[in-house]
Amino acid sequence: MAVTKVKKVRIVSHHDSLDTTIAALQGLGCCEIIPPDGESRPEGGLGSTTPERIKPGRSSELETCISDCRFLLRFLEPLYAEKGGTLERLLGPKPPVTLTELASLRARTDLPALSSKARNLERSISEMRSETGQIANQLHLLEPIKELGLPLWVITRGTEKVMGVMGSIPTGRKASLAEHFSSVVNGEGELFLSSSTAKETEAMAVLIFPRVFEQEVMESAAKAGFSRIDCPPVLEEKPAKEIERLAKRRGELAEEIASAEDEASRMATEVVPVVRNLSDYLAVLAARNEAGDSGVSSEKVSVLWFWIPAGKIKDVEKALEPCKGLVDIYSEDPSPEDNPPILLENPRWAIPFSPLTKLYGMPSYSGIDPTVLMAPFFFLFFGMCLGDGGYGLVLGAFLLYALLRYRLSGDTKNFFVLLLLGSISTVLVGALTGSWLGDMIDVFGIFAPIKSLKDSLVLIKPMDDPITFLAIALGLGVVQILFGILIAFWDAFRKGDMMGAFADQGGWLALLVGFLLWGASSLGVGGGATLFSGKALAAVGALTLVATQGRDKPGVIRKVVSGVLSLYNVTSYLGDVLSYSRLLALGLATSAIAMIGNTLTILVSGIPYVGWVLAFLIFFGGHLFSVVVNVLGSFIHSLRLQYVEFFSKFYSAGGRAFNPLRVATKFTRITGQGVEGPGL
Amino acid sequence: MDQLGIMLAVLGAALAAGFSGSGSAIGVGIAGESGAGIMTEDPGKFGLVLLLQALPGTQGIYGLLTAFFAILKVGLLGGAVVSVNVWQGLGVLFACLPIAIAGYYSAIAQGKTSAASIQMIAKRPEETGKAVILPAMVETYAVLALLMSIILLNSIQI
């Protein structure tokens, strides 16, 4: 239960061995680069030479390859049919490859050619799509005037003497337009109005007239509500003929798009696995380059700085053995101004709980790792919130299947194991409270044989006796909150802050325990001795707080006033404890929703003919819904109790997670020489 | 007068399910609008958005739960017929009020918080854990109201 001690390590390497050194460190995956501008970085020891690239040109070529890979995956992955489905790829084991295989794959693959082929394909598909869109617009425009007997060039170009315009007109004002038009052109023009149904509010109109009348025609038409629409210049023939041509072109385009997409799909099937492997390989190389670039170079050597867990330095030395004579390793403890990265170190049983700590934020380097301290509480609270044996079994079975079916790793695995532990706790709580899918065992006749077994395990029934269960929930809250204050006490003590330990934490501890004893004796627990010790402790606590809580304030009066006001904080402790009542409420809610499901099942099963189908649907659908909703609620609320009620007593986040130079791959698992290390 | 007692209990159940359900509908709606906005940019966030959108929905379930408890209490859901006098009926009605009122308002407030959290995961998907905790802070008060409703219902002798 601690934050791992790390050391600041300087590795000086001759240029000849730099690549090997970095590859070995990457394989170990336990060294975090201290960037050149990092505050923790000491002077390079070689004066202030500017970092230079190890092999100029290599990086920029790598960048191009990486961006090619990214493009190929972005374009082709949506078209790629995953083997065994998407879930399999996300959760399933990654295929193993060696770096040598990947290097030869890279040599064999003409990435720029693939990329330019894919880019051309993408461009032509998008151009054809946009042409299809234009055609659709033109067809939409031409459809109403398909009966127009004039070629469209009259509108787009016109002649020296005659011109045409097309546009829309509100249906109700067709007559008015015709009237205006004929009065202006005096029989020398031609007007075409599209037929329209009663529902349409707009009709199309085409006006053909001598060019000399242009201004008058346009003005009078505008008065009638005519609004001009530009006719695309590509349209030349009569509308009917153009429609025919466009429809034909649309069909051709659709075929061409389909064939281009087919080609892209074929390309995806062929190329995506290769590009995925390459993209992993390039990422590994890029990380190495970045590590090399972080160094300060002289003519012969490079100096690199790393954060390395103290226990791993031996491994690093061993891994760099082959470069002996060319590499020098020197390590030192972090100084107080440094901001070392945080790596949590927990016993095996508590590791599944570490994602919860990470979720809140890493502790500071000198702080406490709360994972172990919180784990038992989270385990118990999750069980109490879900609190149904049947749901626990369903959840557990699902998680077990996922864990066995897919070889999960890292925090995903931790999270699944965490919930699996939660499901065990749920089954235990369910057994003790007699809730198995609510009251299923009691209400369905077929479970009668195991009813006595179920009843023999029951310790308390929250549904019948909520007050006792509430007392248990609040009691757990008192325990966790006092435990939190104790941790803060120990933390302050450990750091030599006696005032913080005895006055701040000790004062509250005495006051709260005193109140508890006082309350216990008033309920008849213990005797006069309990009452006296309770009162005495509370008094000592209160006096300590009054005397010390204003110690930063100037002047006696302000010290005393702040001290007395600090006692008001007792309400926040009261609120914290009451917050644990959610353990009862959520547990009850789970059993009750399950019970409602059972009740409805029995109600509908009486319906003739379809009753059993409905009963089946309601039973399975209802309980499935209930499991999902309640697992979500239980997780969030038991987590909240840790974060808000428990952590607030002693924990402050603010650390930075350890992010070592490692073989970080997305699609493959790299094995073989140079990359297999103990890892972290 | 027995009928009046039962009808008062039914009114309580109706208020509990109706108000907290309405609150949840508004809350889930607010969160959903925000989620749809995010998904126009990045449809891949569907899972996370759905999770956050679902959070203000629990009040509706709590209300339904209380309503069922209430009508179960007065024997309307099968079982033996019990006689409920006016005072007992009023008691059931009052017991339903905490979740009806707190469920309604807290679901709306939680919907707004969820909507804000959805905006947060749009920019910082790695902070999902924190985004889920914020709406859960609001839900506390619905949980407390549910607890009170259940304890009150439980304490009414019929």
Itemize the secondary structure elements and their pairings.
The complex is a heterodimer of chains A (680) and B (158).
Chain A: E1 2-3, E2 6-14, H1 15-28, E3 32-33, H2 58-76, H3 85-91, E4 96-98, H4 99-108, H5 111-142, H6 153-156, E5 162-170, H7 174-185, E6 190-193, E7 202-210, H8 214-223, E8 227-229, H9 239-293, E9 296-297, E10 301-309, H10 313-319, E11 327-332, E12 344-345, H11 354-360, H12 371-386, H13 389-405, H14 410-433, H15 440-443, H16 448-457, H17 466-494, H18 498-522, H19 528-548, H20 556-566, H21 570-579, H22 582-605, H23 611-650, E13 669-671
Parallel strand pairs in A: 4-13
Antiparallel strand pairs in A: 1-12, 2-10, 2-11, 3-10, 5-7, 5-8, 6-7, 9-10
Helix pairs in contact in A: 1-9, 2-5, 2-9, 4-9, 5-9, 7-8, 12-14, 12-22, 12-23, 13-14, 17-18, 17-21, 17-23, 18-19, 19-20, 22-23
Chain B: H1 2-41, H2 46-54, H3 58-73, H4 86-123, H5 128-155
Helix pairs in contact in B: 1-2, 1-3, 1-4, 2-4, 3-4, 3-5, 4-5
